[in-house]
Amino acid sequence: MNKRGFDHWVTTLLIVLGLMLGGCGRAKREITITLSGSTSVQPFAERLAEEYTLRNPEVRIDVQGGGSTAGIRAVKTGICHLGMSSRELKEDEKDLNRILIARDGLAIVIHPTNPLDDISLDDVQRIFAGELSNWKGLSGIDHPIYPITREEGSGTREAFTGLIMKQSKISPGTLVQDSSGAVREAIATNPYAIGYISLGLVNERVKALNIDGVTPTKENIDSGAYPLTRPFLFVSMEEPKGKIKEFVDFVLSSDGQKILEEEGLLSAR
After folding, report:
1. Domain 29-103+232-267: which topology?
2. Which DSSP category does 205 fall into?
3. What element of type H or E holds 153?
4. pLDDT tens profile 216-268
5. Which CATH class for the 105-229 domain?
6. 0.90 exceeded by the pTM?
7. Contact 75, 233 (CB under 8 A)
8. Where does residue 46 rank: exposed (0-12), middle (13-18), buried (19+ CB within 10 A)?
9. CB atoms within 10 A of CB 48
């Protein structure tokens, strides 16, 4: 074989080896963990997944919303590995493995230009039941109130119903949004709207109201002074194993819990 032929042979061999190694690398990334459920938990799960995959590039984590009930059903039917829930499990769901990843406050939010700063739980209930329909008696603004709620099956809605509405029902005329982000956006663009979202999702576009004089802060949630609190959960059919367990362990580790605290939640510890 002459030198030119030898050089061509070596080049071809290197290309083949490169393709083989590249293929191995791609195959290694085929470890996928799927999460589905609460849109309140979703952005925090995405943040955790981002950090975990930076440390473990061979793993891909797909995080999807759909609501707490949908996530729990997805776990039961084997569609996803981990469900996300922003409410406690119901009796017929308690056969699932429950993993508390954080605690959250439920914030009652309005447009930043609304002068109201404090509201009672009774008035919130009356607004969403359709019994209190004008801002005049609350903030002095003579204008109809536009309450915004989450859809049926939402863990955030079920937490709100259990904590505030009790035996009362949300008025059929209440505007319904299918995610916490959509509720926040609707309120951010309507000076006369009111709704509820995760305290961890509150930003400068909306204002969180004090409840009966208590400010919605992590400290007040931790002490029990703030009345609107709920769990953030992962659920699975059985105790997680393999890479799923490693991801859950990361979420519950000091590093994972620090990320959640930096994002506005309270540690599960």
Report:
1. D-Maltodextrin-Binding Protein; domain 2 (3.40.190)
2. T
3. none
4. 998 898 888 999 999 999 999 999 999 999 999 999 999 999 999 998 888 98
5. alpha beta
6. no
7. no
8. middle
9. 26
